[in-house]
Design goal:
The protein has helices at residues 3-11, 15-40, 44-52, 67-72, 84-98, 113-119, 123-133. By secondary structure, it is mainly α.
């Protein structure tokens, strides 16, 4: 919220309204942090729910990663062809692509989500991203 507007609300004795806005902002920040947590734990249902509630899909962490980039950077994919983790990563990547995650974004290391997914052998996620990027 604009600090000037917040100050005006306080000065005009609109404190209940100002508190409501502050609570809504706090809820939004919590949803954005939770999106990282859900993606990093490969929780498809939680990611879907948070995206439906309009969590900021392009919020960045301290490394310049959005939730998609953080997820595909979280380690090498399992080797088992029928791995639940691998399927979840692919499904979450597709959800994020469908919700317009910024695929051109580069992190502090100068890498985008596709490069990170390839580097960590997340083939399904890389294919979703490639398709969305028209590659």
């Amino acid at each position: 919220m604009n600090k000037h507007i917040f100050s005006l609300l306080l000065l005009s004795s609109a404190m209940p309204f100002a508190n409501q806005l502050h609570a809504e902002e706090a809820a939004q920040v919590k949803a954005e942090i939770s999106l990282f947590e859900a993606a990093l734990s490969f929780n498809v249902d939680s990611v879907r729910s948070l995206l439906q509630r309009k969590a900021d899909i392009n919020r960045l962490d301290e490394n310049g990663n959005n939730a998609l980039m953080a997820m595909v950077a979280s380690g090498k994919a399992c080797d088992d062809a029928d791995c639940a983790e691998k399927r979840a990563i692919t499904e979450i990547a597709q959800l994020m692509v469908d919700h317009n995650v910024d695929l051109a974004l580069k992190n502090n290391d100068g890498k985008n989500a596709l490069e990170i997914a390839r580097e960590n052998e997340h083939v399904g996620a890389a294919e979703c991203i490639e398709k969305a990027m028209g590659q």
